[in-house]
UniProtKB/TrEMBL annotation:
Residues 12-139 form the Farnesoic acid O-methyl transferase domain. It holds the Pfam family Methyltransf_FA. It comes from Henosepilachna vigintioctopunctata. InterPro entries: DM9_repeat, Methyltransf_FA. This is Farnesoic acid O-methyl transferase domain-containing protein.
Length: 299
């Protein structure tokens, strides 16, 4: 058994490690929101479980299934994390029971038993909501970390869904083309905004990307660009999400968001598909515009 050091940003993107042992032990230094994912694949998928330690301002810990509310388990844990030193924890999964406890203690501080037996093969780690994390993880199986990537609904994990950090209008090598505006190529990007990770459009000549939220178009100067992706566009409507659709982010409530596009005012514009709203939203002309008929990005 060996230990792996991991640094996580304030991004809510998991780095996955293979682990079929039924237990994960780690130490983490973070001010709040140390998140652990238990998944059948190296991606955020369905089904899966998440354990949020020190969430909601380091006031409570929860277990969530399939990234949906309400939480299946919740306990108050004020001050359980600190960014001053490392705190040790364990997570176990056996016979449908998911549990987490403090290092050196045999009893869990939170647990949940599920009727569905999910085959856990990967464990993911991330931080968010204003926190960065330093981790020391006991590695029980060979292999290094698997880079964070987007969750794909209804299809296997897409290893070629690569998001490259950039900013200020810069375009990384081999970007995925999303559309066109006034003769200029527009690319698929995403960015953290108001507690969500939102798909949007990158317009290089503007020196920034754009996302839509709250009825408005918002410029973003730090973003990730979809690169090295072999995808295509499929016509759909409303909240109909075809198999293989690429989830590129999530709303502030944890709902998966997809990449869509539509022709508007002569421009082929990229935006976010929110299934529960039954539409595509695009950032355009300072506004957030909605469309019931659109194209969605699939593998």
């Amino acid at each position: 058994m060996s230990c792996v050091d991991l640094e996580t940003e304030d991004r809510l993107q998991y780095t996955f490690f293979p682990n079929r042992s039924g237990i994960c032990q780690f130490r983490v230094r973070a001010s709040n929101d140390a998140h652990i994912a238990l998944s059948p694949s190296a991606a955020e998928t369905t089904p899966m479980y998440e354990i949020f330690i020190g969430g909601w301002g380091n006031s409570k810990s929860v277990i969530r299934k399939n990234r949906t509310k309400p939480e299946v388990a919740e306990v108050p844990t004020p001050g359980i994390l600190t960014d001053q030193d490392f705190r040790g924890f364990w997570v176990r999964w056996e016979n449908g029971t998911i549990s987490a406890g403090n290092e050196g203690e045999g009893s869990p501080f939170i647990s949940f038993t599920d009727y569905e037996r999910v085959p856990i093969e990967y464990v993911g780690f991330c931080t968010g909501w204003g926190a960065r994390g330093s981790w020391v993880i006991e590695q029980r199986e060979g292999g290094g970390p698997i880079a964070p990537a987007a969750y794909t609904q209804g299809a296997p994990y897409a290893a070629n869904a690569c998001w490259v950090a950039s900013g200020n209008g810069q375009v990384p090598p081999r970007p995925f083309v999303g559309g066109e505006d006034s003769g200029e190529t527009v690319y698929v990007c995403r960015s953290n905004f108001n507690g969500g990770l939102l798909p949007g459009k990158l317009v290089p000549s503007h020196g920034n990307g754009y996302v839509s939220w709250g009825g408005k178009e918002h410029p973003i100067y730090e973003y990730e660009v979809l690169c090295d992706f072999a995808g295509t566009w499929v016509a759909t409507s409303g909240g109909n999400i075809p198999s293989g659709a690429l989830a590129a982010g999530q709303s502030e409530d944890g709902e998966p968001l997809y990449v869509g596009r539509v022709v508007h005012d002569g421009a082929l514009t990229v935006g976010k598909v929110q299934p529960s709203h039954g539409c595509l939203y695009i950032p355009y002309g300072g506004k957030e515009l909605s469309f019931k008929d659109y194209e969605i990005l699939v593998q």
